[in-house]
Amino acid sequence: MPLRYSSSWALGSVAQLSEEEAAAYLVLNMATKMINRTLFLTYFCLFIYILLSSGVILYNKWVLSPKYFNFPHPITLTMIHMGFSGAVAFLLIRILKVVSPVKMTFEIYATCVVPISAFFASSLWFGNTAYLHISVAFIQMLKALMPVATFVVAIVCGTEKARCDVFLNMVLVSVGVVISSYGEIHFNVVGTFYQVTGIFAEALRLVLTQVLLQKKGLSLNPITSLYYIAPCSFVFLFVPWYLLEKPAMKVSQIQFNFWIFFSNALCALALNFSIFLVIGRTGAVTIRVAGVLKDWMLIALSTVIFPESTITGLNITGYAIALCGVVMYNYIKVKDVRASQQPTEIIPDRITKDWRFEKRPSDIYAPLNAGNNEGSIGGNGFKSDIERHEEAPRHLKFSSSS
């Protein structure tokens, strides 16, 4: 009797083990399919982001350049983008009720949204004006200064501590940009001034976003960001437009094509949503690599589309030096982030995120573009140089507890 009981128990254990193995196999098979599908969607979103980001920059250059479409009014073009984006956001929130507006008080709007919109409008104004004077390729090379500008502004505002290793990287980036500028055949002081000023305006906007919004616990998705930021930016842009562009504009000489301006604004709007999708599916490392890849592709494409853009050996050498500094800086930031993170689950972190589609919060994610000159509330915002976590949040959350 005891032997028969033991045999029966053993057979039951085998049967039970087989069921567990079968269940585990089914779960593993489903997880594999889900991960493969997630990876495909992630790379597809990255491709769309790179395509739209590069396309909007080239499109803006083509529209503004006197040699092509000949609409040399960068403030007007940016106002069209802001007006269109704000109108679409209003339609989605107030009419179609796709998302609900956040609880926005007058205090938060006046102390946070207004100053951030002012610097955002300034960065777009100066950045888009640079297209009239310098090439797209040289603009992309100057954008390597973005980490330097953000680091300097963050130190001045007290949100970042001075570090020797980071400072040396910033020096390397600056030296590379100087070499690249020295090798620029069609160097233009005015265009360079506009672009560098736009970069520092964007850096101020990034730091202001951290200082002002993270204390409010304000959570914004791309639609609500457009809803609040775009109209305010439009108002700020109206002042320089009225003083600088309106007196020089002659209606009879303006070449207006509805479909060109509509498609241009639509591309800028689509870029915002592609940024949201990429942010929700990837981490800071992937985003930074994609940004570097986009910059190289954009430099190469601009020389093909705009033959007047000439790249010299000094341009490439200087940009390569600056890029080395940027890559080293990114490595330091990612290393710091990983050192500060503590594992909390037995399941691998990547698989967990793929199953649950969850992202760790960051101290700051900028919902607006980081010096991209694209006239959008998206763009190169992934290169925020005050990120404190490896993964960006799925929603644009500014919380002091993150």
TrEMBL record:
UniProt-listed Pfam families: TPT
Keyword presence, Transmembrane: yes
Record membrane topology: Multi-pass membrane protein
Keywords: Membrane, Transmembrane, Transmembrane helix
Entry keyword Metal-binding: no
Subcellular location: Membrane
GO cellular component terms attached to this protein's record: membrane
Domain Sugar phosphate transporter: 44-330
TM segment ranges: 40-59, 79-96, 108-126, 132-154, 166-187, 225-244, 256-278, 312-332
Xref: InterPro entries: Sugar_P_trans_dom (IPR004853), TPT_transporter (IPR050186)
Protein name in UniProt: Sugar phosphate transporter domain-containing protein
Organism expressing this protein natively: Arachis hypogaea
